[in-house]
Amino acid sequence: MQLESYFDFISPIDIRIKGHRIGIDTILTPFLEGFSPEMIAADYPELGLEKIYATITYYYRNQTDVADYLQSLQEWREQHYQETLKNPSPVAERLRQLKSERMLSSSK
After folding, report:
1. What's the first-to-final CA gap in the chain, in angstroms?
2. Over its length of 108 residues, how does the chain's per-residue pLDDT go in tens digits?
């Protein structure tokens, strides 16, 4: 089995573990922060260690490309977040308003 067969390459900023809606960044971010594969598996038992190790191996075999992918994904998320702050949905705007009203009423 080829290592790439563990993944769905959906777009340049969306690589998921095959059979799941979980992106490789979900595994790699904690791994790069020092979490062991077993610790990650405890948070994502539906993946199993095989897929977690496959993701880590894919990272090591393609370190430059995966690092670029993770950086692009982070930049996309930040851009999306900033756009959301500038143009909040009506629901988000209403929730902010309710929270503000609640804080004002509790401080009286």
Report:
1. 65
2. 699 999 999 998 899 999 999 999 999 999 999 999 999 999 999 999 999 999 999 999 999 999 999 999 999 999 988 998 888 888 888 888 898 888 888 776
* Tokens matching residue 87: 């143009």
- How far apart CA 36 and CA 31 sit, in angstroms, is 6
Q: How many CB atoms lie within 10 A of CB 88?
A: 13
Alpha helices in 7-62 (DSSP H): 24-32, 37-43, 48-61
- Are the beta carbons of 66 and 59 closer than 8 angstroms? yes
3-class SS at 30?
helix
Q: What is the pTM of this model?
A: 0.77
**What are the backbone dihedrals phi and psi of residue 35, each rounded to the nearest 5 degrees, phi first?**
-75, 145
d(CA 5, CA 22): 15
